[in-house]
Design brief:
Blueprint lengths: L3 E5 L2 E3 L4 E3 L1 E5 L2 E6 L8 E4 L4 E4 L1 E3 L7 E2 L2 E2 L4 H10 L2 E7 L8 H12 L5 E7 L5 H6 L10 E5 L11 H13 L3 E5 L3 H9 L10 H6 L2 H18 L3 E3 L5 H10 L2 E4 L1 H5 L22 H13 L4 E2 L30 H11 L4 H15 L17 E4 L31 E4 L2 E5 L2 E2 L19
Parallel strand pairs: 1-6, 2-7, 8-11, 11-12, 12-13, 13-14, 14-15, 15-16, 16-17
Antiparallel strand pairs: 1-4, 2-3, 4-5, 7-18, 9-10, 18-19, 19-20, 20-21
Helix pairs in contact: 4-7, 5-7, 7-8
Bound molecules: N-(aminocarbonyl)-beta-alanine (URP) and zinc ion (2 copies).
N-(aminocarbonyl)-beta-alanine binds next to loops.
Length: 452
């Protein structure tokens, strides 16, 4: 195949602009973007009537991780195949720190598994244990291209929680190396208090999952993070933010905020459905007014990214009749992230460059991938999602590539990309997987939080 291609006649959407332009790629890189480019030796890909987006970067996936008594349903191979269908060409997943392991070993283990992915893959380092050896190792992770470190203020029973002084100790080091601290912000003590109210009562349905993890848990943990940021200067990125009050606290403290489609498109009423257990995720879904407050954050720029928190399960994994405490928490969404958001942005009158900012440029900048990813410009990787904005459909679930048999967004309007190109290779055509070459590990370089 000719290594030079010219995508002609389409509308190019970046975080900065939306304009008619052609894109020339050579091998795996974009070499030129402009109007009416001359094909020369290039093969032409006619994109008339289509919109061309940079490949989506999902900054928050969990491929094949242990949750409660089972594993999330997707591994890197199956989850990345689904991701491509939704225009995602890079996922950022998390290491798993096993007992006794060094951080480096945890990175190597995860990199080995990630070799099965069809998307490109970057990694965040899970800091679920702190000891002098681990702290000493943090600066060395620059060598692996992993500069973002994730901590949990809850999940004590799973052995994943750090206390606030431990988080502050790590934040000081991460700040010195120019890294990013990512936080799952739900205060464990607040959750403990809320859960104690259920003792001895038969309140086990999925809706009590929400009651057991109130907004107050999110706000309390965020306030602690604000103090840690003020004392250490460490850039702090909150994963999966859910609530209006949480957003207010984050804005006040200058924290970076990620939310997820589930907190924008769904509310807590779904817990009353017969498949309510499928929506159990932590933090839980909130009220319609929280959803609207998050949409306001999207519009006004106080939210920086949208990630899927992809942690899918099949119907059999979450039977309806088990107590919420035993339901494996998490929902899928790497494949539906972009397709479900696109019509929402259009209907809400939010300019499409903002969608690119949230799902491509900002994740690339925050996690140090911007030299290659998140833009349509010379020298960027040739990662493209080509979309017909008139192809809205509600009957997409039948055509999903995902191995899971359930989606939270069933019946919602979605626009799936027609073609998805990852580093110059067309992997999705007519919405179908046509090629299965493997992705690459993309090391993060210095994050750029200043321009966010
Ligand atoms: O319930 C969720 N979100 N499961 C995935 C793990 C996490 O906390 O992000
Ligand atoms: Zn989390
Ligand atoms: Zn997560």
């Amino acid at each position: 195949m000719n290594s030079e291609l010219l995508f002609t006649g389409g509308t190019v959407v970046t975080a900065d602009s939306i304009r008619p332009a052609d894109i020339r790629i050579s091998g795996d890189k974009i070499t030129e973007v402009g109007e009416q480019l001359v094909p020369g030796q290039a093969d032409v890909v006619d994109c008339s009537g289509k919109h061309l987006f940079p490949g989506i970067i999902d900054p928050h996936t969990h491929m094949g991780i242990p949750i409660k008594s089972i594993w999330s349903a997707d591994n890197f191979a199956t989850g990345s195949r689904a991701a491509l269908q939704g225009g995602v060409t890079t996922i950022i997943d998390f290491t798993l720190l096993k007992p006794g392991q060094t951080l480096e070993e945890s990175v190597r283990d995860r990199q080995a598994l990630a070799q099965d992915a069809l998307t490109d893959v970057a990694l965040h380092v899970n800091l679920t244990r702190i000891d002098p050896k681990i702290l000493k190792e943090i600066p060395d992770r620059i060598a692996d291209g992993t500069l973002s470190f994730k901590v949990f203020t809850t999940y004590k029973e799973a052995g994943m929680m750090l206390d606030y002084p431990q988080i502050e100790t790590a934040a000081k080091i991460i700040a010195q190396i120019g890294g990013v601290l990512m936080v799952h912000a739900e205060d464990n003590a607040v959750i403990g208090k809320a859960t104690a109210r259920f003792a001895g009562k038969k309140l086990t349905e999925p809706k009590w999952h929400g009651e057991s993890r109130p907004v107050e848990a999110e706000v309390t943990a965020i306030r602690q993070m604000v103090k840690i940021k003020a004392r250490t200067g460490c850039p702090i990125y909150l994963v999966h933010l859910t609530s209006e009050k949480g957003l207010e606290a984050a804005i006040e403290g200058g924290l970076m905020v990620e939310t997820c489609p589930q907190y924008l498109l769904l509310d807590q009423s779904v817990y009353e459905r017969t498949d309510g257990a499928m929506f159990v995720a932590s933090p839980p879904l909130r009220t319609p007014s929280d959803c609207e407050a998050l949409w306001k954050g999207i519009k006004t720029g106080t939210i920086q990214t949208i990630g899927s928190d992809h942690c899918p399960f099949c119907r059999k994994d979450k039977p309806a009749n088990i107590p919420f405490q035993e339901i494996p928490n998490g929902m899928g969404g790497v494949d539906t992230l972009f397709p479900t958001l696109l019509p929402q942005f259009m209907d809400r009158g939010i300019p499409l460059p903002r969608l690119v900012e949230l799902t491509s440029r900002n994740p690339a900048r925050i996690f140090g991938l911007a030299q290659k990813k998140g833009n349509i410009a010379p020298e960027s990787d040739a990662d493209l999602a080509i979309v017909d904005l008139n192809s809205r459909t509600t009957s997409w679930p039948e055509q999903r590539l995902s191995i899971t048999d359930w989606t939270a967004y069933d019946g919602m309007e979605a626009i799936f990309p027609e073609q998805v190109w990852r580093r110059g290779e067309r992997l999705i055509n007519d919405g179908k997987l046509v090629k299965e070459t493997k992705g690459k590990f993309v090391p993060g370089k210095t994050p750029d939080n200043q321009s966010i």
